Amino acid sequence: MSLNDTPSSERVHIAFFGIRNAGKSSLVNAVTSQEMSLVSPVKGTTTDPVRKAMELLPIGPVLIIDTPGIDDSGELGSKRAERAEEILKESDIAVLVCEYGRDPGDKETELIKLFRERNIPYVKALTKADLYGEELKEPASGENEIVLSSKSGYHIKEFKELLGSFAERNKGKEKRLVGDLLNPGDTVVLVIPIDESAPKGRLILPQQQTIRDILESGCNALVCRDSELEDSLKKLKKKPALVITDSQAYGRVSKIVPKDIFLTSFSMLFARYKGDLFTLKEGADALKKLRDGDRVLISEGCTHHRQCNDIGSVKLPGWIREYCGGEPLFSFTSGTGFPEELKTYSLIVHCGGCMLNEAEMRFRIKKAVEAQVPIVNYGIAIAAMNGILERCMEVFGKDPSLRSG
């Protein structure tokens, strides 16, 4: 991915599902106009999810995902099928690929049930229409159902337009990281510590995205380290509308920023942007209740080389032990790994989720709620442990959709 590419977490994820040899890979290749997936008459050719970032108008940046057949057999085949179903967690739009003229089987019926249970918009694509010639009956009867041929190109354009129609349905629902909390001309101060855990020579994704949203809102972004924050605030002729800090610097920053200036963190902005801010806030109550032997899951959505003073595996466990006065037992996951069974945990502490799309982040929160396990994210947990959580929530009172939360 180049520096100018839209991050995968910000792209609409469109996943193609179906049984083996239904024509998923051929359809994916026709949609992307590339040989993205290997095509063969041999069942089970696609063995792992294949991903392709592209532009699909009018949706815009999308991530196309081709999945293995959900009916794959044998021990290895079952694992491939499970991997296909895992993709459901991150799917914004699902495409169920079925061969035209064949009644859906149990696997396909079960998928449709899952789409509906998880409120995933879906299209049923009936493929291989070129095999039927004059026997082809049009139109198909179902809602969001289309007959097409990847080989001849029949209805491929219309299929893309059908996928694009989902963008029209979501017009006016675009979410903002911070811009909706600001007025044009406001100044926002961003506090970014440069320590041993900061990546060399660049800002991390949440910082980049926040700065971009501030600029798109017609506002000014002043970036400084926590060590220069006090001096930077003194130099401003007008007080900033908001200070946004890296969560790890909350303790120091909260003492410097006057009480009449809104203060929050990048992590809390992401909790609102692609999660459930108030569910995560409620999860902070469990921090003080932790006792010896309680299991705590610390989960990160990305995979990275852990530093000697890593926030997830070192700093947070230390802060939590000090805050609760006990010795909880910590488990760690990263990337796409997230346990199926959560009921054995007393608390889940999740990262801000900048590398996950909204669908997957909300899926993880929903799983925790269903298991009746409190879940909180890094920024909210750190604010609570510093005794400033309510202060850091104040700025979100400017968001009408959250005032009743």
How is this structure best described in words?
The structure is a single chain. The protein is an alpha/beta fold and 405 residues long. It has three domains: 162 residues, Rossmann fold; 91 residues, 3-Layer(aba) Sandwich (Rossmann fold); 110 residues, Rossmann fold (3-Layer(aba) Sandwich). It has 13 helices and 14 strands. The strands form three sheets. It has a six-stranded mixed β-sheet, with helices on both faces. Strands 8-7-9-10 form a four-stranded parallel β-sheet, with helices on both faces. The chain has a four-stranded parallel β-sheet with strand order 12-11-13-14, sandwiched between helices. The model has no long low-confidence stretch (mean pLDDT 86).
Helix-strand layout with pairing:
Blueprint: E1 12-17, H1 24-32, E2 50-56, E3 60-66, H2 74-86, E4 93-99, H3 106-117, E5 122-127, E6 145-147, H4 156-169, E7 187-191, H5 205-216, E8 220-224, H6 229-235, E9 242-245, H7 250-256, E10 262-265, H8 266-274, H9 277-283, E11 295-299, H10 311-324, E12 329-333, E13 347-350, H11 358-370, E14 375-377, H12 378-385, H13 389-393
Parallel strand pairs: 1-3, 1-4, 4-5, 5-6, 7-8, 7-9, 9-10, 11-12, 11-13, 13-14
Antiparallel strand pairs: 2-3
CATH architecture of the largest domain: 3-Layer(aba) Sandwich
Could you name the CATH topology of the largest domain? Rossmann fold
What fraction of residues sit in β-strands? Answer: 15-25%
Q: Which structural class matches the secondary elements?
A: alpha/beta
What is the top-level CATH class of the largest domain?
Alpha Beta
Counting structural domains, the number is 3
- Tally the helices: 13
**What's the name of the CATH homologous superfamily of the largest domain?**
P-loop containing nucleotide triphosphate hydrolases
Helix content: 25-40%
Cα-to-Cα separation, first versus last residue: 38 Å
Q: How do the strands line up in the largest sheet?
A: 2-3-1-4-5-6
The overall pLDDT, averaged over residues, is 86
What is the total tally of β strands? 14
